[in-house]
Every structure is written in C-alpha cells, then in structure tokens.
Specification:
mainly beta; Collagenase (Catalytic Domain); Jelly Rolls; seven-stranded antiparallel sheet; 42 strands; elongated
C-alpha cells in the first residue's frame, strides 16, 4: 500500500502512543486486546474528530471501488519449538485469508498480499508467550518494516490473540493462537483492532446505552453497531442472542451476534458495519499509511505456489511479481520468459478442473498455463489466452488424476500486469456434460470421467417398464438439429448403453433412444405422448459398436458402425419433440439389483444450423402418404428403386380433370450433407418416376422437387443395405 501521510494527525497518533498502555486478559480469554482509559481519552480527544470528518465525506457509508484496492503487505511468522517441531501449516493461514479475510476487507478497499517467504522462528521462548513484554520482544527481533507482521504461536497468554492499535506505534504486530487461526473470524477480528476498530462491547469510553442515545461517545464510538453487553456465552448455534442484559435504567440490549468485533460464536461473526468499514479505510490511509506494497509475492516462484481448492475464488495483484520463474515455453499459449507472474498449485481429485480469470475482478490482459509434475520438472497440461466470450481474460479446463499436483502460472500478455480474480471449479465431466438420473436409480447410479476421454456409467436403473423410463444419463442441452456419435467400448451383458434425446429428465418424457449391448442387436425406443407408453423395437445389425443419433426437424435417425468410419442406417422415426432437448449417453440394467457398467469414448457432438437449409415442407414417415399430399415417395426405406408419384392436385391446371397431370420442373438428389449427386429435368407430363438408388451407399438422402413459381418440396428417404 503506497504511503499517504497526514502529518498533523500522524503526530497526534504518536503522542497518543505514549499514553496507550494495553492490558492483557488472563488465560482462556477470547481476545487479549485492550485499550487503557488514558489511551481511550486521548483517542477520543484527538483522533475521533478526524475520523468524524472522514465520515462526513461519505454520508452514505464508505463504499468499495472509490479507488483501486490498497495492497496490504503481510509477513507471516510461524513460531515453532527450538527443535523445529510444532507450528501451524502455511496452507491453513493461506486458506483463512483467501476464504474469509480478503472477502471481509474488500469493502474497505483493502487486499492482502503475502510478502516474501514465510518466516519460521524456532524458539521455545516464543512458542508460548505471556503478555506484552514477550510479544514486544519477539516482534522487535523479527519484524519486517512497513508490512503487517502476524505471528502464529502455540499459546499467546491463554487467548486467541491480540493486536496493537496505531496508538502503540512503533510497536506494530498481531499475534494469533494456532488453535484459533482457522475459525473464520479470529484473524479478521484482530486485524480489525490493528486498523483501530474497538470491541462492540468496549467500555473504555463509557457504557453505551441500548437505545443508542450516547453511541458517539461510548461503546465503540460507532452509531451503526448496536450496543453490546459482551455476548460471550449468550449466542446460540443459530447465531441468535439469548441473553437478557440491561443497562441505562433497564434498557434491554439487542446486540448484533454477527459482528466480527463482538465476542459472539466465532462462526457467526461475518459482518462489518458501514462505519466499521469506513474506520478501517480511514486508518489504512492515515494511521497505517506506512504500509508500503513494494514486496515480491511469495508465489512469485513455483516453489512458493499458493494452494488452490475446488470452489475457491482468489484475488491477486501481480504488479510486483517478477519473471524469475516464468516457464518460458509454449503451453496452450506462449510464455517467453519475460512476463511477470505468480504460481498456484492444486491437487488432482480425479475431476475436470476449470481455472479462470474470466471474472469481474480481473482488470488486465491475463494468460494461464497449467503444468503437472513438480517444480523444475513440469509437463504442459493446458493453457489459454483470451477465452471465448471473456474478452482478454483466460480460462483453462484440464482433467486431473487423484493425488497429482497441477501448477498454475498466471501472467499477462506481453508483460501486462494488474489485478486478477482467479476462480476454481471442479466437475465430474467436461462442460457442458452433466449426469442426471431419470426415474428410479434402482441399486444406484454412479458416473465418472477419466483423463483418456472416457465416460463411465454404473447403472442400477432397471428400464423394463413401458410407461416410464429408468436410466443413468450423461447429457447436455441441444437445440435445433444435431448429431451425436459415440463408441460404446463396453457394456456388461445385463444391460444396454447408447444415445438418447428427451424433452426432460422426467421418467414419462417424450423421447427417442438407441442402445446396443454389443451383440448383433440394436434397441430403439420412443415415446410420442408425454407419460404414454413407449414403443420398443429391436433391429438385427452386425457389430453395432458405434452409434449415431441424428435429428433433423422432427425426424430422428439412428445409425450404427463397427469401425466408426462407415455408418449404416438402423431406423428413422418422426417424433414431435421440443426444439431444445436433453441429449447424450445413457445406460440401464435389465436385472433388478445388478448394476450394468458402460464405457463410452470418441464422443462427438455437432449442432446448430444444418449444412443445407431445407424448406419447411413436412415429410411423412416411411411409406405413409398424408391426405392432400402432392407427391408420394415409396418404398421407404428402399434398396433398388424409389418411386415418385405426382398428384394432379398440385401439378394439373386448375380444374383439370385430365388423367395425365402436367408437370415440368427439376428434381435433385442430395446426400445427407446436402451435396448434389444427380439432377433430372422433367419437361413432359408424367404421373410417376422411378429413380435407381441401387448404387448409393446406405444412409439418408433427399430429393428436391422444384417447379418455377412454386415452393420447393423436399422428400427424405433411407437407402437400406
């Protein structure tokens, strides 16, 4: 934090220091920070008027974002026994700051940056300390100037900790008991004292009346924190005050058990009032203005990497980072060795992990690289610069193995530096895939994804009922036309595995599904009416290891392949389903109590607009001709010849009763990719036309019928084997 001096007030604070002898409580006390009556009187006389002037500048409360976050440099000191045993873990401290301290203090425009490596003090003399004299001696021997020095000891005088007010300068430190370092609020509480916040039950200025009538001259001197009788032992597990204390002629207290500066249950303390936030900001700009952020972050090097955990969001400013440990290689994106950056590490959980700077708190052109291995021997996993939809921010997704460390390097394009908000999320599957149970899970459904890009389902769902579905699925939402292809690598003999498309994951949803048990059998299911019975058909097909489900409008086509290259049609069905469907992989068992295990790989999804935009002409299901249709195509599917029959309703002249309808136009045969295979011109009247399709490969085809001045009609047919 850059120094901002207000000389007159700073002089007052130094004078105040001479009179501010703090007294410590005895053993088993929550906080040993105390303000003497003499120090309180001088504070109220000299400093409080300056703070009130500051408050008047912000009548609606001090709000974050008025300026860039001030970086408070922090030096961590961990005290161990003389033989090096004992002491708190670094990660415990880092996690407390990332998860609680930083969020609490952001509203005051403060951030905290760990400077230099953690300092270990191996000393029996300081492992347990008693009172000011020992704490002052410890800090005098070990303090780093112009930073917030925090000492973590085994037992600080039987309390959770204490802090020095600005009145104690040049004595300047915080001490925390190891056993209180990760309770969500003790460290935040003591840092509050460090920035001159008093207890909400403070009495050095006088007892505050519960009605707040003397709030500006008693209690903590803040009028937006309710009077507090000292709520120790008077707050229940639901964070509700249960006491009945009174003051000022019988007035009943109504304290705030969530205030961080109270003696409430530690997990309940999550709140700073607006005036407390303003007080912290005021002190950071005045009494603690010497805190100068000019230190190199601890995680400037790989060996100092800060730990990340799933679900965490951390903020960092890399302005003082160096490029001393820049990887200097291409890993998803380039790092040339000159860009400053910081390191993080996360242990693999077997999940797919996403690390992203694509957040509101990122203000520079950021890049991310991810490596596995160990510092000095790293292997590239992933990297990104300018993730789609995130502007100049980066995001990487990578698969992890349990117990493997993954190192994340955060840096900037072309040496850019600034603030980043880095978030971590862990999911079982790569986005946008998600698991979902449809209907009953039977013996239970389980899902997994492995780093060899394989999806695993253990399905206890028994799918034997026609009126409802019981399935284990891994799917995503797809809208419009789409195509899904998958290799069913394995399915136990008691089950089926395949592809589906459903309107919802309710058991009676309209749907289509195609499944294989890796024998010569393909199972096709469909439900055309919500909560109605489904139809189930079986098709004999050799080696149906690969499956493909394709949607075009309300037509659904099933294909199979033994090698993933040459696909043949299984069947096609028209089912009126919603535009957006839950589509993907599914498995089920045929035997109650016996799970079926399926393995899927080579999963590919195509969607969006079709390659050829077909006119919205409705086409009927195989072999059916709707009343009033102008063209009929049969047989469908066809092996050798398809026949087109032209009705006089469309092609005859108005009122024409001739048995020979007039037709002149163009017919085009296209494959399923929209590629033109053959074109025919009909200039003579005809009732029907035969088209030889014997030489076509099995699959889906379209015949366009076009006549000048009329809408093009499109007919679909399937070329069978």
């Amino acid at each position: 934090m850059k120094p901002i001096f207000i000389s007159a007030l700073f002089a007052v604070l130094l004078a105040f220091s001479a009179n501010a002898q703090q007294r410590r409580q005895g053993p088993e006390q929550e906080c040993a920070t105390r303000l003497s009556p003499e120090a309180a009187a001088l504070y109220q006389q000299q400093t409080e008027p300056q703070f009130q002037k500051f408050l008047r500048q912000f009548p609606n409360g001090y709000t974050a974002g008025r300026a860039a976050l001030l970086q408070v440099p922090v030096q961590i000191h961990i005290v161990r026994r003389s033989d090096g045993t004992g002491g708190i873990a670094e990660t415990t401290i880092w996690n407390e700051f990332e998860n609680f301290i930083k969020p609490y203090y952001t509203a005051s425009n403060l951030d905290f940056v760990f400077c230099n490596a953690t300092h270990y003090i191996n000393s029996d003399a300081y492992y347990n300390i008693s009172g000011d004299a020992e704490g002052d001696a410890m800090s005098a021997a070990n303090n780093v100037p112009n930073v917030l020095n925090i000492y973590f000891v085994n037992d600080p005088d039987g309390a959770c900790g204490w802090a020095r007010f600005t009145s104690d300068l040049p004595v300047d430190y915080i001490v925390i008991a190891n056993g209180c370092a990760d309770n969500q609020s003790t460290v935040a509480h003591e840092i509050g004292h460090y920035f001159d916040l008093f207890h909400t039950h403070e009495t050095a200025f006088g007892v505050e009346c519960p009605d707040g009538s003397n709030c500006g001259s008693a209690g903590d001197l803040l009028c937006d924190t309710p009077a507090d009788p000292d709520v120790s032992g008077m707050v229940n597990g639901s964070c509700v005050y249960t006491g009945n204390a009174t003051a000022c002629g019988g007035q009943a207290y109504a304290p705030d058990p969530t205030n961080i500066m109270s003696y409430s249950v530690k997990s309940c303390r999550t709140f700073f009032s607006p005036q407390q936030i303003a007080k912290i900001a005021f002190t950071s700009l005045v009494g603690r203005s010497y805190l100068d952020y000019n230190c190199t972050p601890v995680n400037d090097v790989c060996s100092g990497a800060f730990p990340l955990v799933c679900g965490q969001t951390t903020s960092v400013d890399i302005s003082s980072a160096t490029a001393v440990d820049n990887p200097g290689i291409f890993c998803g994106t380039n790092s040339d060795g000159s860009e400053p950056g910081v390191w993080y590490v996360i242990e693999g959980t077997g999940d797919v992990i996403t690390v992203s700077s694509c957040n509101a708190g990122t203000d520079y052109d950021s890049k991310i690289q991810v490596f596995s291995g160990s510092c000095g021997s790293l292997s590239c996993e992933a990297g990104n610069d300018d993730f789609g939809g995130c502007g100049l921010s980066a995001q990487v997704e990578f698969c992890t193995e349990v117990g493997v460390d993954y190192y994340v390097y955060l840096f900037g394009f072309n040496g850019n530096v600034g603030r980043a908000e880095l978030s971590v999320s862990c999911t079982t599957f790569p986005a946008p895939w998600e698991s979902a149970n449809v209907g009953s899970t039977g013996a239970g459904n389980n899902y997994d994804y492995t780093c060899d890009d394989k999806y695993h389902i253990s399905a206890g769902s028994v799918n034997n009922n026609l009126n409802s579905d019981n399935l284990a699925t891994i799917g995503q939402q797809l809208c419009g036309d789409f195509e899904i292809t998958v290799l069913v690598e394995g399915i136990t003999p008691n089950g089926y595995a395949g592809l589906l498309a459903r309107e919802s994951n309710s058991s009676g949803s309209k749907m289509v599904g195609m499944y294989t048990n890796r024998s010569n059998m393909v199972r096709w299911e469909s439900r055309t009416v919500t909560n109605g019975n489904k139809g189930v058909n079986f098709f004999s097909r050799p080696a149906p290891y690969w499956l493909r489900l394709k949607r075009q409008g309300n037509w659904f086509y099933g294909y199979y392949s033994y090698n993933g290259i040459n696909f043949s049609i299984v069947t096609a069905q028209q089912v009126a389903l919603s535009n957006c469907l839950e589509a993907g992989m599914a498995a089920f068992t045929n035997i109650p109590g016996a799970t079926a295990t399926a393995v899927f790989s080579n999963v590919s999804v195509g969607g969006g607009s079709p390659l050829i935009v077909l006119p919205p002409t409705e086409v009927e299901q195989a072999g059916l001709e709707r009343q009033g249709s102008n063209i009929a195509l049969f047989p469908n599917p066809a092996r050798d010849v398809v026949t087109l029959s032209f009705s006089e309703l469309q092609f005859g002249e108005a009122g024409n009763t001739s048995s020979k309808p007039q037709f002149g136009g163009t017919l085009r045969l296209r494959n399923e990719l929209g590629q033109l295979l053959e074109e025919r011109r009909l200039d003579e009247p005809t009732e029907r036309m035969d088209w030889d399709v014997n030489s076509l490969n099995p699959g889906l085809y379209f015949i366009e019928v076009q006549r000048e001045g009329q809408a093009t009609q499109v007919l679909r047919f399937v070329k069978a084997e």
